[in-house]
Structures are given as C-alpha cells and as structure tokens.
Amino acid sequence: MDEATFKRRTKQFALRVIELVNALPRKPAADVIGRQLLRSATSVGANYRAACRGKSTADVIAKLSIVEEGADESMYWLELLVDSRLVPAEKVRELSKEADELVAMTVASIKTLRSRPQ
C-alpha cells in the first residue's frame, strides 16, 4: 500500500473513532475508555505522518513501532467497550477489523525495513 493510501486510512480510522466516542453513553467508564480510545486511535495517523518524515531507517522503524502500538492499543479499548457491554460488538466490528489491518500492515513494513541491508 502506498503512503497516501495509508495516510488516508489512518485518518479515516481516527474520524470513525471520534464518531464512536461522541456516541458513547454518558457513563464514567465510557468516558474513561472513550478518552483512551480517542488518544490511541488519533495517534496512529499522527505517528504515521511522523514516520514518513523519518530521518533514517532506524527513525522510521521507531516511529512505525509507535503506530503499531497505537493501533493495537485501540483494539484493546474497542474490545473493552464491547466486553463491558457499553457498545454492541456489531457497532465496533469494522473499526476493530481496520485496527487489526493497520497493525498487520505496520508490522509488515517494519519487517521489510529491518530486512534491508544497512
């Protein structure tokens, strides 16, 4: 996948999470989980953009590792919303799938960069 497509996907992921968080019930647990999800999901695209401006292969890998962590953390918060019965599973299914795909693509990119001769 090219850089522009990945940027677009990470931005759309963040926007969809913003929509979800804005629709959460007004409960203390939903507020805390929603804030955490919002933070991790919006960091995915921001850190990918930073990775695109990396100064070296090591810098790009370090920044992509943050992208991976943010997407994986987002999956955790989405699971928690479902497991705590704050949101029905079908409401977050596509977001969870997208987070999983973002993790997989980021891991593949990191592996590719690590396998290149220095």
Largest sheet: none
Rg from C-alpha positions? 15 Å
Q: How many structural domains in the coordinates? A: 1
> What's the count of strands?
0
What is the residue-mean pLDDT, rounded to a whole number? 96
The span between the termini is 23 Å
Element string (H = helix, E = strand): HHHH
Label the CATH architecture: Up-down Bundle
Proportion of helical residues: over 70%
- State which percent range the strand residues make up: under 5%
Low-pLDDT parts are: none
Shape: elongated
Number of helices: 4
Structural class: mainly alpha
Assigned CATH superfamily: 23S rRNA-intervening sequence
Topology:
Elements: H1 3-22, H2 28-52, H3 57-83, H4 89-115
Helix pairs in contact: 1-2, 1-4, 2-3, 3-4
What can you tell me about this protein's structure?
With 118 residues, the protein is mainly α. It has a single domain (3-113), classed as de novo design (two linked rop proteins) (Up-down Bundle), CATH 1.20.1440.60. Helix content is 84%, strand content 0%. It has 4 helices and no strands. The longest helix has 27 residues, at 57-83.
In a few lines, what is going on in this structure?
With about 120 residues, the chain is mostly helical. Helix content is about 85%, strand content about 0%. The longest helix is centred in the middle third of the chain and has 27 residues, at about 55-85.
Summary keywords:
about 120 residues; mainly alpha; de novo design (two linked rop proteins); 4 helices
